[in-house]
Amino acid sequence: MPAQLIDGLLVAAGIKREVQADVAGLLARGLRPPHLRVLLIGSHPASKAYVTSKVRACAEVGITSDTEILPDTISEKSLKARIAELNADDEVDGILVQLPLPDHLTPMSVIESIDHRKDVDGFHPMNVGRLALNMPGFRSCTPAGIQELFKHYMIPTKAKHAVVVGASNIVGTPMALMLSREHDSYNGKATTTICHKYTKDLTAHTIAADILIVAAGQPNLITAPMVKEGVVVVDVGMNRVADHTSEKGYKLVGDVDFEGVSQKASWITPVPGGVGPMTVAMLMKNTLLSAKKAVYPD
Q1: Between the chain's N and C termini, which has fewer beta carbons within 10 Å?
Q2: Helices (H) and strands (E) in the chain, counts
Q3: Is 118 a catalytic residue?
C-alpha cells in the first residue's frame, strides 16, 4: 500500500493561523507587532527567493519585516557592526542572516555575533547548546517543523530507531538532538543514528530505520532497496534537476526517490510541499515567541 502523505502545507497553515491570532492579541492589548529584520548579502537568486517567501509569510500573519540588501563585498567587520546595531534595537525582535554567505565571510562567526535572544533561526551556539542540554531556547526551524509534523500526524518517536542522513548544524545535528530528548510521545526518546558522507555502507543504517530523515542535499540518494517496509520518511532535500518537459527547464526533487520509497513507507513527505512550508512557519512562531519574551524573559 502506498505511503500516506505528510502534508506540510496543511500543518504550516494551521501554525500560521495560531501565530496570526496571537499577533492580533498583542495588537488588541495596544502592543506593537513582532518585527523581523532580514539581512541578505549579495544577490544569490535562491537566497532572494527564500527571503521573499519569508517576508510574504510575515505579512500573512501580521509580523512586520524589513529586508536589508548588503553588498556581497561587505567585510565581516562591517556586517558584524550592523548586526550589533540590530542587537541593540528594542524594536527588532528577530534577526535573520540569510545563508549561504559569500566565501570571504565565516558563517558561524557571523551567526555568533547575533544576540541569541534574537536568533529566530535557532543557529546560535547558545541555542544549540541549550538544545543539547534540553533547556529552553530557540529551536532550529526545520527540525522544529519536523517535530510539529510528527505531533500533528501522531507519529510516535519514543523507542523508535531514527536515522538522520546529513550532519549539518542547521538540520541534521539539531534534529538528532531533538529526537533523542524527552518531550512527549511524538517528540523524543528515539534511539538516533547520524549518517554523513563518510558513513560506510549507508544502506545498512537506513534499512534499519523506523524513522528516516534525509537532509543530504543529493537528489534521489535514498532508493526503495535502502528502506524497510513501514518506515516513516521525512525528505528535507530540495534539489533542481533538469526536466526538458517543464517550462522552467527543471523540476524540484528531494533526497529520496519518492516514487519508489513511497511504495514501502507508511508515511512520507512530498517535495515540494512537505518540510519547506514548516520551516517558514516555525520562523514565524520563533519571531512571535521572541516578541513575547516567551523563550528568554527579561
Answers
A1: C
A2: 10, 11
A3: no
Among the options 16, 22, 93, 98, which is catalytic? 98
The grid cell for 226 is: 535502502
54 is catalytic: yes
In the predicted structure, residue 5 carries a pLDDT above the cut 60: yes
- CA 64 to CA 218: how far, in whole Å? 35
pLDDT band per the 50, 70, 90 thresholds, residue 103 = very high
SS3 211: strand
Asked whether 208 and 114 are in contact (CB, 8 A), the reply is no
C-alpha 248/C-alpha 246 separation (Å) is 5
Instruction: Respond yes or no: is residue 121 known to be catalytic.
Output: yes
Place of cell 516567551: 294
Q: How many CB atoms lie within 10 A of CB 203?
A: 12
The mean of the pLDDT values for the chain is 95
pTM above 0.85, yes or no: yes
Range with the poorest average pLDDT among 30-34, 161-165, 166-170, 237-241: 237-241
Q: Which of 54, 80, 118, 264 is catalytic?
A: 54
Q: Looking at this protein, which amino acid is placed at residue 51?
A: V
**Adjacent-strand bridge partners of 68:** 39
User: How far apart are the two ends of the chain, measured CA to CA in Å?
Assistant: 52
Q: What domains can you pick out in the chain, each with its CATH number?
A: 33-127 (3.40.50.10860), 141-276 (3.40.50.720)
Q: From CA 285, how far away is CA 268, in angstroms rounded?
A: 24
Residue type (1 letter), 139:
R
Number of Cβ within a 10 Å radius of residue 46: 11
How many Å apart are CA 237 and CA 204, to the nearest integer? Answer: 21
List of residues 6+ apart from 57 with CB closer than 8 A: 16, 280, 281, 283, 284
Q: 22, 93, 119, 121: which is the annotated catalytic residue? A: 121
